[in-house]
């Protein structure tokens, strides 16, 4: 019989969540009228309540249960240092968009000089709290070890989940990509004109591991798509809202780097890298009994970006003087809006921009 892969974990974008484990509330001083009033001369804190997304009543999205308990299943985490990320740019990408994504990835590691707090590196520190059965932590050092540009769409503009691995195999065969089975992670990023199976309908990204028969070794990988043309209201939310939400709530938030598609991708990239690092072979850290549909450390906190989040609120984040919204600082003066992740120490969703 032919071997078919089990459904890989994927990043659902169905609703802003309220997780019962999440009990962090905003400090009273941050909810004063002065912190909520528009000030065009300085940055200020906001906690906007946004309309629920289309599938908010569904129980099928990950993290939807209030009774899930994150457990360790004895598998490895990405503890070998550094974590080498091999980028596959599938389709046409502008240099500026590539630099923005690479600045986010390179901001995960501690640097000198350090980015201002709250920083992307401090956010990744929570991921590094996860350990394997030997007590080894997820590595704090993340490097970009290689890049490959598939400008000719070698596998077409419509991809399946399985053909994502074929894209990786093409990159490996084309060099300079090695089969880095010890420290390697493949990150496939598809351009805005590439259609991927279940993209927009159910997923914005997913992670899994490669099959030796296709790539030559078992290596963790993730895919994330640029939703700018296909579904920004789903995969770049809250920087874009569905049409039926027009006029409700505060409206879409302005992206920190003026690009809805790429700014939306960055939060998904962070989500998937955090889960891939703590659950690379889908047998380490997750909740639930089904490893083919695990609830992982990002799923538990989907839709939460700051203190006081939940019930439609994204939490306390910062709005700059021109109205762009962010919660983390990165290298080269970059700013990003990235969802929180589950902390094993606090047993709650956490981020370095927490106010308590």
TrEMBL record:
InterPro entries: EXORDIUM-like (IPR006766)
Cellular component GO terms held in the UniProt record: apoplast
Chief location bin: secreted
UniProt signal peptide: 1-28
Protein species of origin: Carya illinoinensis (Pecan)
Compartments, as annotated in UniProt: Secreted, Extracellular space, Apoplast
Protein name: Protein EXORDIUM-like 5
Similarity comment: Belongs to the EXORDIUM family.
UniProt xrefs under Pfam families: Phi_1 (PF04674)
Domain of life: Eukaryota
Keywords: Apoplast, Secreted, Signal
């Amino acid at each position: 019989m032919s071997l078919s892969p089990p459904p890989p974990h994927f990043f659902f974008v169905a609703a802003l969540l309220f997780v019962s484990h999440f009990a962090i509330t905003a400090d009273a001083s941050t909810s004063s009228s002065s912190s909520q009033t528009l000030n065009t001369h300085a940055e200020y804190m906001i906690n906007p309540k946004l309309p629920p997304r289309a599938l908010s009543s569904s129980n099928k999205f990950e993290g939807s249960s209030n009774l899930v308990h994150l457990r360790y299943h004895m598998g490895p985490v990405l503890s070998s240092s550094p974590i080498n990320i091999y980028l596959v740019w599938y389709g046409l990408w502008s240099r500026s968009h590539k630099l923005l994504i690479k600045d986010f990835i390179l901001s995960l590691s501690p640097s000198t000089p350090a980015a201002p707090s709250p920083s992307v590196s401090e956010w990744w520190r929570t991921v590094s709290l996860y350990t394997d059965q030997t007590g080894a932590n997820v590595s704090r050092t993340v490097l970009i070890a290689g890049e490959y540009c598939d400008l000719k769409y070698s596998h077409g503009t419509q991809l399946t989940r399985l053909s994502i691995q074929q894209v990786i195999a093409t990159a490996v065969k084309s060099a300079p990509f090695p089969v880095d089975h010890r420290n390697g992670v493949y990150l496939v990023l598809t351009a805005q004109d590439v259609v991927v199976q279940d993209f927009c309908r159910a997923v914005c990204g997913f992670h899994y591991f490669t099959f030796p028969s296709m790539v030559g070794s078992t290596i963790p990988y993730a895919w994330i798509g640029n939703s700018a043309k296909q579904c920004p209201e789903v995969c770049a939310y809250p920087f874009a809202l569905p049409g039926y939400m027009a006029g409700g709530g505060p409206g879409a938030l302005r992206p920190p780097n003026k690009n809805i598609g790429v700014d939306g991708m960055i939060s998904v990239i962070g989500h998937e890298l955090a889960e891939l690092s703590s659950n690379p072979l889908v047998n380490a850290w997750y909740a639930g009994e089904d490893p083919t549909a695990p609830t992982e450390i990002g799923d538990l906190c989907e839709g939460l970006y700051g203190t006081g989040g939940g019930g439609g609120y994204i939490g306390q984040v910062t709005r700059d003087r021109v109205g762009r919204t962010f919660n983390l600082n990165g290298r080269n003066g970059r700013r990003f809006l990235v969802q929180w992740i589950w902390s094993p120490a606090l047993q709650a969703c956490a981020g370095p921009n927490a106010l308590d």
